[in-house]
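HUMAN: Mind making up another protein with tokenized structure?

ASSISTANT:
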Amino acid sequence: MANDDGFVLAKPRHGDVSTALLREYTANHNGIGVIYRALDLLVAHFELADAALVVDGSDLGVQVFRARRRPLAPEHAWLLTAAPGLYTAPKVRFDTSLLLVLCAIALDLDVEHHDAGHDALTGLANRRRLHDALELEQRRAARTGSTFGVLAFDLVDFKRFNEAYGYETGDDALRTFARALRAEARSTDTVGRWGGDEFVIVALADKAEQLAPLVERVRRRLTRNPVADDQVVAFRESLPVMYPADAAEPGEILARALGSLKPS
């Protein structure tokens, strides 16, 4: 099965690279990373100019990966509608059955791993992930002497908002607030939904005052993104709780942040 740009669908013969992929996944539980590693192994093993893998994951649908993590060029657009399989330039004879199964499993396991640590409604970190982030930052602080802070948030009169506009609109308000937090937080911060209308950010900071600009940025962003009847999502934030100055244990840090939410 040839294509104009030189890719062909690889034909079955043997599974050496599939075996290497299985070993790789056993040692490195990063499904997408393993798929790219498999493609690079193929390119090296067969001295290929290029290789691409089309995988049909059960949750994500069809995904296309290209060796060396290169983006798809316009001339490779046909891969987006191609059948699942391994496409190589030049043509090779290779048993793709085990490879495709392993890559689909690796991709699905990545999704399951993500879902296990994230809130289904907002996509933010869930309680489990927040606890893990706090423990990670605590270990980092013990090793390097760094400090971090925790801020908690909740939405003002959220129960009344739900009663007035309905639960679907209430969910939209939660998602809008979550997007604002994620957009204004730094890539090094962990942003999570604690439960209900309560949210938490774990952020690297030397002192509490450094967290104040984040709160104001979130508030400004929300004014630009109203929900039902042009209602702006209103929230209140806690006093920052700094590690190790204010609290020394993850549970205590969270309890103090959630407990110090300012009154409406």
Notes: The chain has two domains: 8-116, 127-259. Residues 11-15 have pLDDT under 50 and may be disordered. The two ends are 66 Å apart (CA to CA). The chain has eight helices and nine strands.
